[in-house]
Amino acid sequence: MTLAGCGAAEDAGVREFEQALEAELGDDADVAIDPDEDSISLDDDRGSFTSGVDLDIPDWIDPALAHPDDLSIDTLIAIDGITSARGTTSLGVEELAAFYLAAVTELSWTVDSSILTPPDFFQLLTTDDAGHQFDIEFVQGKLGFVIGRNRPET
Question: For the sheet containing 30-34, what is the strand order?
């Protein structure tokens, strides 16, 4: 979504669009559009969703974890205790799997499970040194980071 314009007219248009979305979604919905960041966020009692262009890496992702230089986060979702960030990079699935395996090994995180199915899937389930589960995956052309998901018993 891109909203273009200038000054007060742009601000009024953004506020009008936010109010229309909030009315459609119900009383508990909060919509925020940031034309400067090219993003839209929706929050309600079910969770939150943000979509944008090159969003900041969320603070729940350990800042010590290395990422590809061209990683661009475009979606953030939090629902039912599961939080995820999705984005893009030019690296292929095998390069990403090797990159993140090296990155978590460098941090001395535990690799709980690793799956690589070229050319379009990998999943790396890890536990950080504080005991928090952190999953990294490449699914449907998107690189994802997930916390709070129930894992199958091993």
Answer: 30-34, 39-44, 47-55, 72-79, 82-88, 142-147, 133-139, 121-127, 110-117
CB–CB of 145/85 below 8 Å? yes
pLDDT tens by residue, 99-131: 999 999 999 999 999 999 999 999 999 999 999
Question: In angstroms, rounded to a whole number, what is the distance separating the alpha carbons of residues 128 and 148?
Answer: 13
Whether the full predicted model's pTM is greater than 0.85, yes or no, is: no
Structure tokens that stand for 66 in this block: 């290395």
- Listed in sequence order, the DSSP H helices in the chain are 7-25, 93-106
What stretch of H or E contains 138? strand 133-139
DSSP string over 34-75? ETTTTEEEEEETTEEEEEEEEEPPPTTS-TTS---TT-EEEE
Residue with tokens 């990998």, as numbered in its chain: 122
Of the CA atoms within 13 Å of residue 20, those in its CB half-sphere come to 7
